[in-house]
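ingest -> fold -> write
write: protein_1
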Amino acid sequence: MKKAMLFILALLFSVGANAATLSLKTFQSTNASQKVDVASGSVVLGSGLATPAKGETWKSQFDLNSDTTTPVKVTWTFNPDNALASGWIKFKSAPDAFKTFFVSKVASFSFITTLYANQLSLLNFESATGQALNYTVSVSAVPVPAALFLFGPVLLGFLGLRKKQALAA
């Protein structure tokens, strides 16, 4: 029973050990409307409607922040999935240089990067071409295995208990 209680206690601590709070704000857009659906938390969401005229491009830019340095997964999704002809995803988080990805005829695109504590990060979709489409951007904190720091002492404790029981027998 004691082992189960220690395991559950370690699990509870590991779940909350890396709870980064992200915040998302709209910055600017061209030929697209944009909004923030979930502005703060471990997952933030933005969305919009791109309505470029024939031959024109569209762009959408968001500002992103985190209270702690943390890895994040960024996912852009486009609907209908065949409406995006091409575009550039650009991400900047100081002190890193811009990360740039060219996407063409995809339904979604994801990448993992690092947000630095209290540094403004730029999340842009630029020079996009294609038909009118809805888009969403999701940014979620990727949990770092902080549980290793908490499970390590617990595992050593289990080994110590096992050794103690073996010596007592």
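write: protein_2
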Amino acid sequence: MLFPALRYELRDASATGEARRGAAELARSLELSEVRQGELAIIVTELASNVIKHAGEGEILLQARTVGGQVAIEVLALDRGLGIARPAEVFRDGYSTAGTPGTGLGATQRLAGSFDLSSVPEVGTAVLARVFRGTLPLSRWHPLALTSARWPSPTPVKPFAVMRQRF
């Protein structure tokens, strides 16, 4: 099942709050628990602030959908910035190129039920995070995902195809 998408243009810091409030409203309407609502708020805030901080502008797309029989809210953050030079390092707590504590993307990855990042130098970055309404069934977990609390993507995602259409 697919629900209408919400789109938030990110041009300044005030847009972060608007996207977070939209995500909270969507989460309440889908009856996500207070814990899941809080996780979603952190994810949207972190991704939106990263777009503004590192690329200057971009967008957040929120979409509720059913994935593998579970209701989920997808958060897709897109920007056309410089890209991430060393993507593997951004998940390590303490790594920052902006003088911040450097815990944001690692925390976002840990909070999300599923997470993917794609970045191309001089093209931009796309980050997809899913927050599921219920508990994920253990029988569906990939063995390697058990230690990182990540859900394998059910379908291939082509974020840059979306990015080219949006900008």
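write: annotation protein_2
Residues 95 and 102 are 5 Å apart (CA to CA).
The beta strands are 6-10, 58-67, 70-79, 114-120, 124-132.
pipeline exit 0
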